[in-house]
Amino acid sequence: MQANPGPHAAREKLFHRLFEIGVWIKGIDGLIETAGGILLLTVSLQALNSYVIALTQDEIQEDSGDLIANALRHAAEHLTESSKLTAGAYLLGNGFVKVFLATCILRGKLWCYPVAMAVISLFILLQCGRLGFHFSWPMFTGTIIDVAIVLLIWREYRKLKI
Predict the structure, then answer these.
(1) Is 90 buried (19+), middle (13-18) or exposed (0-12) by CB count in 10 A?
(2) Is the model more confident about 59 or about 148?
(3) Dihedral sign, CA of 52, 54, 59, 61?
């Protein structure tokens, strides 16, 4: 007969699972950002605008006031070559860093935990600055998730260092 592991062990298992999920989310987010950066750096403004129109066409036909579809179209229409290059480089660099850090953490590289906490904390500070100028619920939610991930990485790192 197997003994009940108790609430402490169950809580530890839950926090470890949340840690793993958070790191995977960061890695997947990094892959998406990397792909977006490559897209912005390799596709012309005209092709990008056409792609966004095609992508949002059905949604706009169903609901002409769709917030996300209209925001995507507005952003694509007002994108300049300079802002496209800046956004592409930012996404590519940011995405690569996230993928690298997530991969190292998932492989158990202990040195990477404090680096990841510092880098994500820097992103949190930048996001807070942006939120101060222009509040958005998606960015606020992402920032809260990032704070939770930093705390989970810190908790896991502390546990591994013992």
Answers:
(1) middle
(2) 148
(3) positive
Sign of the torsion formed by the C-alpha atoms of 74, 80, 81 and 86: negative
> Average pLDDT of 42-64?
90
| Residue 54: DSSP 8-state | H
Q: How far is it, in rounded angstroms, from Cα 110 to Cα 23?
A: 14
Output the CA torsion 76→81→141→57 (10° steps).
Answer: 10
Phi-psi region at 79: left, alpha or beta (left = phi > 0; alpha = psi -120 to 50): beta
Rounded Cα distance, 157 and 15, in Å: 12
SS3 at position 5: coil
Amino acid (one-letter) located at 67: L
Helix (H, G, I), strand (E, B) or coil at 107: coil
pTM for this model (two decimals): 0.80
Helix, strand, coil share (%) of the chain residues, nearest 5: 85, 0, 15
Q: What is the per-residue pLDDT for 67?
A: 86
**For the residues 128-155, what does the mean pLDDT come to?**
93
pLDDT at site 74: 86
pLDDT of residue 5: 67
Distance CA 24, CA 65 (A): 34
